[in-house]
Amino acid sequence: MIDRFSNLPEGVIHHILSDFVVKDLARFCCVSKRWRELCLSSPSVNFCGFNSDEMVDMACELRLKLVNTLDRFLLSRGDNEMKNFYLLWYGHMDEDLDEPCFCVNENFRIITWIQTAVRCKVEKVHLVVEYFDYDGERIAFPSCVFRSTSLRSLVVEMPHTVVKTPSFTLSSNLKKLFLSDVTIQDEGFFKWISCSCKSLKQISLIEVAEIHNITI
C-alpha cells in the first residue's frame, strides 16, 4: 500500500488535521511513527467530539481514563506550537451519589490543559465547559491566559468560573474576547480592557455575574 498522505507538504497535512477531533487523532497516531509525529506536531488541538449524553452518564473510572489519555496526549506534544485549542467538556452528573465523586478533580486538570496551550503560544482558545450540580468554590480562570502575547482570540463559556483582573503591566494582543456565564471579580477588569487591549476589535459579554457597571 502506498502512503501518499505522508508525502504531502507538512502545512497541507496540518491543515487537514485541524478538522480532526482528539479521538480521530488518537486513531491516526496508531498508523505509523511518521503519522504519530504529524499528529503531535499539528498546531490545532480539538478536545471535542464527545457525545454530551455519554459524557454526563459516563462512569467515574472511564472519565478518569479519558482525562489521563488527554493528559498524555498534551505531554507527548511537548512544546510544539499550538495555534488553536478547542475544548468542549461536560461535567459528570450522578443523582444517586450522596457526595461529590472524584470527577470534581477534572476542573484542575482542565486548568492545566489551558495553561499548556498558553505555554505552546496558542493564538485561538475556545472553551465550553458545562458543570452540573457543582457546589464547590468558584474556579479561578488561569491568569496566564491574559498575560499571553500570542493569544488573538478568546472564547470562554464556563459557569462557576471567576475571571480576575489581570495585571496592567503587560499589554494584550487580543482581537476577540467573548465571555459567557462567568463571574468577573470586579470592574477593574474593564479598565484593564481599556488600558491593555489596544488591538481588540470584538467583545461580547453575556450573563456575566457580579458586575453592575461596565465602562470601556
List strands and helices in order, with pairings.
Elements lengths: L9 H8 L4 H8 L3 H8 L3 E4 L4 H6 L2 H18 L6 E7 L15 H14 L4 E7 L8 E2 L3 H4 L5 E5 L3 E3 L12 E5 L2 E2 L3 H9 L5 E5 L10
Parallel strand pairs: 1-2, 2-3, 3-5, 4-6, 5-7, 6-8, 7-9
Helix pairs in contact: 2-3, 5-6
Mean pLDDT: 84
- The number of helical elements comes to 8
H-E order: HHHEHHEHEEHEEEEHE
Biggest β-sheet: strands ordered side by side in the sheet: 1-2-3-5-7-9
Strand-residue fraction?
Answer: 15-25%
- Secondary structural class: alpha/beta
Number of strands: 9
Low-confidence residue ranges: none
Q: What is the CA-atom radius of gyration, in angstroms?
A: 19 Å
Shape: globular
Distance between the termini: 60 Å
> Which percent bin holds the helix content?
25-40%
Biggest sheet overview? 6 strands, parallel
Please describe what this structure looks like:
With 216 residues, the chain is of the alpha/beta class. Helix content is 35%, strand content 19%. The chain is built from 8 helices and 9 strands. The chain has helices at 10-17, 22-29, 33-40, 52-57, 60-77, 106-119, 144-147, 188-196, and strands spanning 44-47, 84-90, 124-130, 139-140, 153-157, 161-163, 176-180, 183-184, 202-206. It has a 6-stranded parallel sheet with strand order 1-2-3-5-7-9. The longest helix has 18 residues, at 60-77. The mean pLDDT is 84.
